[in-house]
Amino acid sequence: MRLRCRWWGVSTGTGHRYFGLLLLRRHPSAVIQIGQNAVFRSSPSSNTIGLNRRCFLSADGGAELIIGDDCGFSATVISAGYSIRIGDRVMCGANVTITDSDRHPLAAAARHAGQPGVSAAVIIEDDVWLGMNVLVLKGVTIGKGAVVAANSVVSQNIPSYSLAAGVPARALPGTEVTP
User: Fold this and answer.
1) What was the pLDDT predicted at 34?
2) Which residues are catalytic?
3) Is CATH 2.160.10.10 the classification given to domain 2-171?
4) Kind of pairing, strands 97-99 and 83-86?
C-alpha cells in the first residue's frame, strides 16, 4: 500500500496499517495527505460489524483531503471536491461516507449542461467518533470530541463534546461527551 500511495502522489506519515486494499484516486492538482499511524480496514474479515465496501479516498482537481494522526477507517469513503480536513484521533465506524460536494446541481438544466454541484469545506475536529453508516455532507464542522450516532446524516454543524443523532443529525439535549 505504501507503493500504491506513492504512485498516486499521496503524502503519508509512518506507522500505517492496511487490512485489505485501500482504493485511491487523486487528480494531479489535488492534495491527499495522511498523518501518522492511520488504520484502513477494507477487508470484510477485519471488522466484525460488517463492511460492505473498501476504504476509498478521492480528491478532484484542486481539492485537498487532509487526515490527521492516529485515525481509523472501516470501509470509509472520503470524496473531496473542494476541502475535507480530518483532525487527529478520528474514528470512522463501518461504512461511513464523507463528501464536500453535491456532485451534481439540483436544477435539471444545469445537470444536463454538465455543470458541477455545489461544494463547501468539511472540517472534522480532533477526537470525533462517527458511528456506523454515518453520512457527512458538505459545509459542516463537527466539533472536537463529538460523537455521531450510527445511521445519522450530518448536514449541519455539530458542537464540540456533544452526542448527535438523527436525520438530520442534531446534538441531543442534555447529553455531553466527557473529554
Assistant:
1) 96
2) 104
3) yes
4) unpaired
